[in-house]
Amino acid sequence: MKITQEYARKVIEEVAPLVEKVSGLKTDLNNYVVIIEKSLNNMAWYSHPKTFTYTEEFLYNDDAFHEITAHEIFHNAIFSKFPNLSDYKNSFYSHSLDCLIEGDATLIQLNLRNKYYKNSNWISSSDALLWVNILNKEFGGNREYINALYTAPIEELVKIFRGDE
Q1: pLDDT in tens, 10-44
Q2: Containing H/E element for 158?
Q3: Domain-by-domain residue ranges, the chain?
Q4: Nearest in space to 104 (alpha carbons), one of 120, 82, 87, 121
Q5: Residue 50 near residue 103, CB atoms below 8 Å
Q6: Which of 35, 96, 112, 140 could share a disulfide with 157, CB 3.0–4.6 Å?
Q7: Where in the chain does DSSP place strands (E)?
Q8: Cα–Cα distances in Å, from 78 out to 62, 70, 75, 121?
Q9: pTM for this model (two decimals)
Q10: Is 101 exposed, middle or buried (0-12, 13-18, 19+ CB in 10 A)?
């Protein structure tokens, strides 16, 4: 499936309201950029500047493209709501924060897969699925509790994702 900027923008605009509904967070899609690259292995979201990057030749189906775009849009919502998260990205706590951010984005995308993108043929990483399982076990998928983790003391994340009691 060949991806164009126009198609990616259409999907972003279509999926953003679904992400907002499921996550309870607002996205910030003012003045974002879409970059299509030939050799990119992954799709990604970068907060400065607001950029979605996609590989030109997407190897999965249309539902998978929507689902993975939802994952990246959720990153937009998280970093829009909690911009100070980037302060921790290169700290001692980076791993625990990554577990929360990637696990939660995967939780959102899987929720949307179950509702809208049932024909997705994309497989999440085993690490991301482990973090989804931790979030589900600890919080039962409750968005209010999970969203509160983004403002909890970072040591709480370490306890949750290291299994410390």
Answers
A1: 999 999 999 999 999 999 999 999 999 887 677 88
A2: helix 154-162
A3: 5-162
A4: 82
A5: no
A6: 96
A7: 33-37, 44-46, 51-55
A8: 25, 12, 5, 26
A9: 0.91
A10: buried
